[in-house]
Amino acid sequence: MHAGRRYIISIAGFDPSAGAGILADVKTFEQIGVYGFGVCTAITVQTEDEFKSVEWLSPKLILSQLDLILKGCDCEFIKIGLIESFNVLQEILFFLKRNYPQIKVIWDPVLKASVGYEFHHLIDKEQVLSCCRDIFLITPNPEEAQYMMGIKDVYEAAHVISQRTSVFLKSYVDENGSHMDILFHDNNEYHMNTSLLQGAEKHGSGCVLSSAIGSFLGLGYDLKISCKLAKDYTLQFLKSTEGRLGVHNNIRNMVEHG
């Protein structure tokens, strides 16, 4: 390891298209300026347009990968993406809390692939909320917030989660039809206007956003600023190509010069 280097770890699935999962996370980490490690939770058979299957790695193998990396690097933030179950998530969180309590976890709750494959059919609301106690930030979209809490009202679902952890609710549409992201943090709400980009959907954009937030946090920015900078990074990613696989752009100069 390199003294003084900022490190971050992605615990996520392997996507051969490199649009989502570990590969997308590490691309994001490196472009923003932190060194990214990857702990694999699953091997998927997919492209940006088609999902065929997933093979899950055992919790023992996941934690073995993670422990060896953490023994050699000083890491403050970990991003968790695709996991097999909430039981596995709890195992990872318990392992970190017991052995590396200084680490803050950012959880991007991947409930289904962007092409429609569902990973989690049954969700225990109380188990989710229990996990959230040991998580620094969760980044759900409206559908994920609704599904995890079993609450139809998106804002209310996110608010319930925010009683246990900070929440960055993506792509919320209010009663007036305004598009925004909402950060719930320290009993405050920060509304961030966002643009609706027609035809700019990208495979793995949620992975990119959560990884970007973690990267900026790792560089020392506070949570609110990290979310704003991550939105900028993700917007450039969404605008980068006409297809569903985006290109990662280096925005360090933009950050350094305001």
Structural commentary:
With 258 residues, the protein is of the alpha/beta class. It has a single domain, classed as Ribokinase (UDP-N-acetylmuramoyl-L-alanine:D-glutamate ligase). Helix content is 38%, strand content 23%. It contains 9 helices and 9 strands. Strands 3-2-1-4-5-6-7-8-9 form a 9-stranded mixed β-sheet, with helices on both faces. A hairpin with a 2-residue loop joins strand 8 (179-185) and strand 9 (188-193). Helix 5 (142-149) packs across helix 6 and helix 7 (205-218) packs antiparallel against helix 8. The chain is globular. The protein starts with 6 loop residues before the first strand and ends with a helix. Residues 253-258 have low confidence and may be disordered.
Main attributes?
single chain, alpha/beta, UDP-N-acetylmuramoyl-L-alanine:D-glutamate ligase, 23% strand
In short:
With 258 residues, the chain is an alpha/beta fold.
What's the CATH first level? Alpha Beta
Tell me the structural class.
alpha/beta
Q: Approximately how much helix is present in the residues?
A: 25-40%
Distance between the termini: 30 Å
CATH superfamily: Ribokinase
Q: What's the number of structural domains?
A: 1
Using the 3D structure, state the CATH architecture.
3-Layer(aba) Sandwich
> Are there runs of 5+ residues with pLDDT below 50, and where?
253-258
Name the strands of the widest sheet in spatial order. 3-2-1-4-5-6-7-8-9
What is the β-strand count?
9
Order of helices and strands: EHEEHEHEHEHHEEEHHH
DSSP helical segment count: 9
Question: The CATH topology is what?
Answer: UDP-N-acetylmuramoyl-L-alanine:D-glutamate ligase
Based on CA atoms alone, the radius of gyration comes out at 17 Å
| Global outline | globular
Mean pLDDT: 89
Quote the beta fraction: 15-25%
Main sheet attributes: strand count, strand direction, barrel closure: 9 strands, mixed
